[in-house]
Amino acid sequence: MPELPEVEALRAFLTDHLVGHEIVRVMPVAISVLKTYDPPLTALEGRTVTAVARHGKFLDLDADGLHLVTHLARAGWLHWKDRLPDGTPRPGKGPLALRVALETGEGFDLTEAGTQKRLAVYVTDDPAAIPGIARLGPDPLAPDFDEDRFAGLLSGERRQIKGALRDQTLLAGVGNAYSDEILHAARMSPFKLTSSLTKDEIHGLYAALRSTLTEAVERSHGVAAGRLKAEKKSGLRVHGRAGETCPVCGDTIREVSFSDSSLQYCPTCQTGGKLLADRRMSRLLK
Questions:
Q1: DSSP labels for 64-102?
Q2: pTM for this model (two decimals)
Q3: Which residues contact 80 (CB under 8 A, 6 or more apart)?
Q4: Residues 6+ apart with CB under 8 A from 4
């Protein structure tokens, strides 16, 4: 799933490639991705893109005051085309969901792989009215998001820190991958309870949160949209690397599986050498 660093990189890329250009056609291919119908997609045609913004994991294209907002979900992606194919794309079984064409012949496709279709597209006068955006917590890279504010968010929570970091209503933009990376950098167990965090642990977690996301954004800066996924994977130290060697201590990276996701961690760096219970695997072995 694209998270804050990748969506921020897409925002910067699209700012360079879209702002000042006219949208001449918006072509829906998978109608299921459309979550709003008034104003219609065609209302964007003939408008000029004036800005591109990010709200957590949401991308927001401002076209003369009308906004095309998308959430790429788990398997969605944006593909930039220096030259779009001629003709109108036809609905089918492929991944293409939406195409946006500019007056230059350039544009982009929104696609979604897999069978779980969660890619979402909105057209609105007010992005803040979209429920997913309205519920977002603060952006962890915002200039005013300091350690005191972070501590205040955690003070009312009593749950595992991994889940707290991924909660978009608590903190906008962090998902499964970067929560693993942040906790590894903070040398903290993903199962540690927020209510048990000391002041020093909150300080370390805040520093890991900011540095991990900032470094990921910097790595992605200037990277073309089509290469962002590979850039993300190459920069991850523990997430998606179960069975590999921890780059910090040399221990073997371990995994805990859930029904629809998994987390990765380093026992030496994060849990004092203790292996966390993998409940799904335990059931399989019974």
A1: TTEEEEEE-TTTEEEEEESSPPSSPPPPSSSSEEEEEEE
A2: 0.93
A3: 13, 17, 106, 107, 108, 224, 225, 226
A4: 54, 56, 57, 139, 140, 141, 172, 173, 174, 178, 213, 216, 217
For 29-44, what is each residue's pLDDT tens digit?
999 999 999 999 999 9
One-letter amino acid of 4 = L
Tell me if 220 sits within 8 A of 232, measured CB to CB: yes
Q: Are 69 and 146 in contact (CB under 8 A)?
A: no
In percent, how much of the chain has pLDDT > 70? Answer: 97
Q: Which residues contact 240 (CB under 8 A, 6 or more apart)?
A: 177, 233, 264
Query: Cα–Cα distance between 151 and 214 in angstroms, integer?
Result: 19
Fill in the amino acid letter for 76.
G
Return contacts of 204-209, CB within 8 angstroms, 24+ apart. 205/150, 205/161, 206/147, 206/150, 206/151, 208/182, 208/183, 209/140, 209/150, 209/165, 209/174, 209/182
Q: Calculate ∠ Cα 276-282-286, nearest 5°.
A: 155
Per-residue pLDDT tens for 96-117?
Answer: 999 999 999 999 999 998 778 8
Residue 11 tokens read as: 């925002």
Q: Is the peptide bond before 91 cis (omega within 30 degrees of 0)?
A: no
128 and 134 Cβ atoms separated by less than 8 Å: yes
